[in-house]
C-alpha cells in the first residue's frame, strides 16, 4: 500500500471518529436531565422538585399551584369580599389568590368543602357563593292566647290541656316550661314551614319575639337532626378535631380530621 493510500485511509478513520464523538456530545448535552439541570429542574417549573419547593412550615396546594402555611396564616386572614364566603372549617380567604384555600394539605379523595347554610361551594371559583335556591318565607308564628293559665300556674287548654305544674309549668308562667316550648314549636313546624323542614327558634330557645326560621334539619350542618337550641339536634361544625363534616339524613358524618387527629371506626376524631 502506498504512502498516499495509507494517509487517505487514516484521514477517513479520523473523520468518522470525530463525527461519532460530536454526535454523542450533542445527545448528552441536550438530554432531558441536562436540560432540567440548566433550567432549574422539574421540566422548567419555577418551584423545582415538581413544584413542591415549599418551606418547612408550608405545603404545596396543587389546585392553585402555590405554597400555603400549615395551620393557616400566622395573623388573622382578611374576611372574604362581599358576596363571597369560605367554609367555616379548614379554609380561609387568601387575598393573593383571590379565593378560599385550606389550612392543611388535602387528600386527593377529600369531599367538597362544606359551606355555611345559605351558601354553596363553587369548585371553579374556590369559594362559597350564595345559594340560589329560594328561602321559605319566615312569618312570625301565632302568639299563644293569654288566659288564666298564662300567669296562674295552669296550662292553657288551647295548648294540649296539660295538668297544672307539670314539668315546672307554674314556675314558667303556666306554659309547661322549656319542654312545652319545644313541643309547641315542633308541633307547629308543619303549619309554619314546607314539608321536610322544621321551625327553629332564632337567638334563644325561649326568645320572646317568637322569631323562627325554616331549616331542613336532615341536611343542615348546624341543626342536624333537629333544632339545636331546643336540644333536639347536633351542631356538626362543633365536633372536636374535625376538618370536614356533613349532615346526612339527620346524622353528623365526619369525613376527615384536623391535623393531629385521626378518624376512628366510630366516626369520631381523636388526638394522635
UniProtKB/TrEMBL annotation:
Residues 126-182 are annotated as: Disordered. The keyword Secreted does not apply. Residues 148-165 have a biased composition (Basic and acidic residues). Keywords: Signal. Pfam families: CPL1-like. The keyword Ion transport does not apply. Residues 212-269 form the Protein CPL1-like domain. Residues 1-22 form the signal peptide. Transmembrane segments: none annotated. Residues 135-145 have a biased composition (Pro residues). This is Protein CPL1-like domain-containing protein. The lineage of its organism: Eukaryota, Fungi, Dikarya, Basidiomycota, Agaricomycotina.
Amino acid at each position: 500500500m502506498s504512502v498516499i493510500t495509507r494517509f487517505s485511509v487514516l484521514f477517513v478513520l479520523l473523520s468518522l471518529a470525530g463525527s461519532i464523538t460530536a454526535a454523542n456530545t450533542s445527545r448528552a448535552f441536550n438530554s432531558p436531565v441536562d436540560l432540567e439541570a440548566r433550567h432549574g429542574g422539574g421540566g422548567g417549573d419555577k418551584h423545582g422538585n415538581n413544584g413542591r419547593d415549599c418551606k418547612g412550615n408550608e405545603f404545596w396546594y396543587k389546585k392553585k399551584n402555590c405554597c400555603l402555611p400549615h395551620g393557616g396564616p400566622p395573623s388573622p386572614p382578611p374576611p372574604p369580599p362581599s358576596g363571597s364566603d369560605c367554609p367555616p372549617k379548614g379554609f380561609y380567604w387568601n387575598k393573593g389568590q383571590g379565593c378560599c384555600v385550606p389550612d392543611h394539605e388535602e387528600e386527593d379523595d377529600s369531599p367538597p368543602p362544606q359551606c355555611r347554610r345559605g351558601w354553596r361551594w363553587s369548585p371553579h371559583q374556590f369559594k362559597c357563593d350564595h345559594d340560589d335556591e329560594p328561602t321559605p318565607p319566615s312569618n312570625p308564628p301565632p302568639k299563644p292566647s293569654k288566659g288564666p293559665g298564662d300567669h296562674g300556674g295552669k296550662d292553657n287548654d288551647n295548648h294540649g290541656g296539660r295538668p297544672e305544674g307539670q314539668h315546672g309549668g307554674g314556675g314558667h308562667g303556666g306554659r309547661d316550661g322549656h319542654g312545652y316550648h319545644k313541643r309547641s314549636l315542633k308541633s307547629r313546624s308543619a303549619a309554619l314551614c314546607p314539608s321536610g323542614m322544621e321551625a327553629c327558634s332564632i337567638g334563644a330557645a325561649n326568645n320572646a319575639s317568637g322569631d323562627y326560621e325554616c331549616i331542613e334539619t336532615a341536611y343542615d350542618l348546624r341543626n342536624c337532626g333537629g333544632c339545636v337550641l331546643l336540644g333536639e339536634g347536633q351542631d356538626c361544625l362543633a365536633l372536636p378535631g374535625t376538618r370536614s363534616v356533613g349532615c346526612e339524613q339527620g346524622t353528623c358524618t365526619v369525613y376527615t380530621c384536623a391535623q393531629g387527629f385521626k378518624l376512628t371506626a366510630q366516626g369520631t376524631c381523636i388526638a394522635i
